[in-house]
Description:
Blueprint: E1 40-43, H1 48-59, E2 65-68, H2 72-81
Parallel strand pairs: 1-2
Amino acid sequence: MDHRPAYLTPERFPPPLRIVLRRPGDGLAGIPLTLSRRNFAVVQTHALATTATGFARSAGQPLAYLGLLGPRARKEQVLREVP
């Protein structure tokens, strides 16, 4: 999932991966696939507030793993921002 179409290409993410064009703050709700404990998600943006929103909206989904990319201090900042 990315909001930049130039990065969402089959060459970068070959099938069977699914490419989803949307903003990180939208979270995972409404994505045209069935999420289950077999799915993984990693959240990383360049804006702390957007990362926190994306992480918070993804946290309620049935995922096997939800991760954050970046340094430990940034992770701690993001988690402080999550409601």
